[in-house]
Amino acid sequence: MNLSIVSTLYGSEDTVRDFVARAREAARELGGSYEIILVNDGSPDRSLEIATELLEDADDLVIVDLSRNFGHHRALLTGLKQARGDRIFLIDSDLEEDPAWLPRFSAEMTGSGADMVSGVQTSRKGGWFERITGDVFYRIFERLIALKMPRNPVTARILSRRFVDALDPFDERALFLPGLFAYAGFAHVTLPVEKASKGTTQYSLRRRGSLAVDAITSFSSAPMRYVFYAGVAVFGLSLLASLLVVLLWIFFQRAPNGWTSLIVSVWMLGGLILSAVGVTGLYVGRIFDEVKRRPSVIVRTIHDSTR
Fold first, then answer.
1. Strand residues in 203-298 grouped as ranges (E)
2. Is 159 helix (H, G, I), strand (E, B) or coil?
3. Is the pTM of this model over 0.70?
4. Could you report the per-residue pLDDT of 245-265, keeping only the tens digit for each?
5. Angle at 163 between CA 157 and CA 179, to 5 degrees
6. pLDDT digits (tens, 9 = 90+) for 92-109
7. What is the DSSP string of 87-152?
């Protein structure tokens, strides 16, 4: 099979029909055999029902129904593992990303010889807070993992068969796909795209924060080192402060103000200890999730009209 188009369904009842039609049009323009894989990530609306209706008289559609919502990145990876094409086009089904990008992405892969061509926004959509926090996150993440990542990426990207096969051994519970793509280390080029905006997003501030924590703790132990350095710095400052107090007392008979220094020290050390315990707890929790070896996703059923 030449091509697999992989997407996920969550709150997609208004767009799934149009998405499939436009994906088919793009695949037929490209030529060759193809399949469209839709992974239902526990969508609470009629997305699955509408998608299964599209199976009638279809010979190019695969629907993977997960037992519940496992998260966008896990659903995407599930779709990648189901794909059989020589090239795999990953894209969201909300039509903020245009399936018509496919021929352009494929041509870029052929011309560059890269194993992944990913889309990046020319300007990040959303309000000022979303734009600033997104940029700050990617800067911090790059610094922590020492891997180059494109800024303002979108889901839309095309991958080679060998790239997708290289992702198969990864079985992490805390999954951050852009980091995993960068970690894989294959030749990678980017294309500027203009992503549409429907005014709402499935990613709340809480979900973004949770994703950021998962991304950092699953790819880097640097926060643990920084906590250690902070502890050493506080210890060094406390030694200097103690020496200064002793010198003032001996040579200038200036007794230290006990209440102020005590309260400041308690709050400083208490905050440092709580931060250290919290960071350590994040990594212990990550270990707890990994060693249980529970499946990352559970597939309830697969509807396949291609066979």
1. none
2. strand
3. yes
4. 777 777 776 665 665 667 667
5. 65
6. 999 989 999 999 999 999
7. EEEE--SSSSS-GGGHHHHHHHHHHH--SEEEEEESS--S-HHHHHHHHHHHHHHHHHHT----SS
